[in-house]
Write a structure and sequence with these properties.
By secondary structure, the protein is an alpha+beta fold. The chain has four helices and five strands. It has a domain of about 90 residues: endopeptidase domain like (from Nostoc punctiforme) (endopeptidase fold (from Nostoc punctiforme), Alpha-Beta Complex), CATH 3.90.1720. It has a five-stranded antiparallel sheet with strand order 4-3-2-1-5.
């Protein structure tokens, strides 16, 4: 797998593919193999081309040894846990494989933005009712 700059991506890297307002994450395993957790398929091994969809990819090499990454991927695939935007999204899945902890900064951001927007709408309605 190559980046847009022509540099090879090291096996065991976390991949980032921008999808508009969101970023899709996966784990590059080397050769043509990528682990991802996608909405329509759930956790799976796929090809580099299927993961990138012809879009640019960024990456970050991981310090986690390949045998640990592989063991976590095998556990995720065997679990049968489907994709869930709140509980098992691509970012949570990739960070769990990469670091042993499932987290999603994107989800936290969008949930927080929703709360702020809701607060602003309710505050504006309250001001309209007092006028």
């Amino acid at each position: 797998m190559m980046t847009t700059t022509g540099q090879p991506v090291p096996a065991g890297s976390i991949l980032y593919r921008d999808d508009g307002w969101l970023t899709h994450l996966g784990i590059y395993l080397g050769g043509d193999s990528v682990y991802e957790n996608a909405k329509l398929t759930g956790p799976r091994l796929t090809t580099s081309a299927a993961f990138t969809r012809g879009r640019p990819v960024r990456y970050r090499p991981l310090p986690t040894p390949m045998p640990v990454l592989r063991a976590r991927i095998d556990a995720a695939l065997a679990s049968g846990q489907p994709y869930n935007v709140l509980l098992n999204n691509c970012e949570q899945s990739a960070t769990w494989v990469a670091e042993g902890e499932a987290r999603s900064p994107q989800l936290r951001f969008w949930v927080g933005a929703g709360f702020v927007l809701t607060f602003l709408v309710l505050a504006a309605r309250n001001n309209d009712n007092e006028a």
